[in-house]
Amino acid sequence: MITRRQSLMMAGAGLVAGCATMPPRPEGPSLNALAARSGRRFGSAVGAGRPGTLTASFDNRAYRRLLEWECGVLVHENELKWYALRPDASTFTYEPADRIASFAAERGMGLRGHTLIWHHPQWFPAWTSSHDYGARPAAEVERLVVEHIDAIVDRYGMIDSWDVINEAVDADTGELRVTPFSERMGGPEAVMDLAFRRTRERAPMAQLVYNDYMSWEAGHEAHQNGVLRLLEGFRARGVPVDALGVQSHIGSGNSDNSVGFDTARETNWRRFLDEVVGMGYDLVITEFDVHDKNLPADFAQRDAAVAELGRRYLDLMLSYPQMGDILCWGLSDSHTWLQGRWYREDGLPKRPTPYDAQYRAKPLRQAIADALIAAPPRRSA
Ligand code: XIL
């Protein structure tokens, strides 16, 4: 159900009005071409949701043009999640995901896989709680997970990097989240270890990623520590995990009101990343956007602040040779998940992506380009 408020926001974001004319392409190389200079790919999420909604960027011709201009790799915004793909225990709804995969394949773009298990009870489909798990529930969970991984990984064999597990660590406590699967399988580790091992078997060449949203912001210490414990556990148990996916939903209004990135926080964040790479993990920026919830209303001021924070963040991340691909969670303000939640007090649409709702490049696009140009080379795999 789309509320009146949401439809007003969507109109303000240019979603309903659409855009008849496409602004000119930014001069110079694409973001993906710039990323390639240091051995990386640039890309974005794209959604094949219900036409006319925020999650339907793929439906929009102008948005698809942006993807063609800028991206070397795409990721499904929602279409591979259990709730989108599996309306019940025996049905798979592949069509929306297929459309995006074909688009990428036809253009020679790469594809990331998001996500085999979103290890967060809120995002499990309701049927996973009411399902008849029979006399041996652990075996039935194992059957469902293996069936899922085999089906999806085989169907989308072009996916070369998988978010095998998403968001397993409770951000408040640092403990592992309990899900309808984990409580029947003897704990979250059992589910995650199975998922990584099975994915490695089915896609031996793919990069396997644990993906989460821990950040440097005040209040994220428990989350960071929980992720480090989880990553240590993977290593201790010999679980095949190659990289940490740092979602990178940065900016104001996610978990606190901070828009800054001061030295103390930067030091703390580097310490976290140092520990991650010290365990032998690579890094991926999987869902970059810069939230502007609490920034000034004025577009020029807001866009400048978003660009400045984005640049600073990307410079830091790109200083790690273990840092690989960089994907935005949406390329245009016309289709960003942030438009549909955590509304600004002034009711104005948000501007957290590199292109505005009329598909004009914003200062954030230049900031990303500059960070990519300045990036030291990626460590060769
Ligand atoms: C979001 C989508 O953008 C929304 O359309 C959906 O309603 C909820 O999920 N972290 C993730 C992504 O790992 O899957 C989330 O995507 C954003 C936060």
TrEMBL record:
Protein name in UniProt: Beta-xylanase
EC number(s) reported in the record: 3.2.1.8
Keywords annotated in UniProt: Carbohydrate metabolism, Glycosidase, Hydrolase, Polysaccharide degradation, Signal, Xylan degradation
Record's keyword annotation contains Cell membrane: no
EC main group: hydrolase
Alphabetical list of SMART domains matching this protein: Glyco_10 (SM00633)
InterPro entries membership: GH, GH10, GH10_dom
Keyword Signal in record: yes
UniProt-listed PANTHER family: BETA-XYLANASE, GLYCOSYL HYDROLASE
Catalyzed reactions per annotation: Endohydrolysis of (1->4)-beta-D-xylosidic linkages in xylans
Residue ranges of domain GH10 in the record: 48-371
PROSITE patterns: GH10_2, PROKAR_LIPOPROTEIN
Family note: Belongs to the glycosyl hydrolase 10 (cellulase F) family.
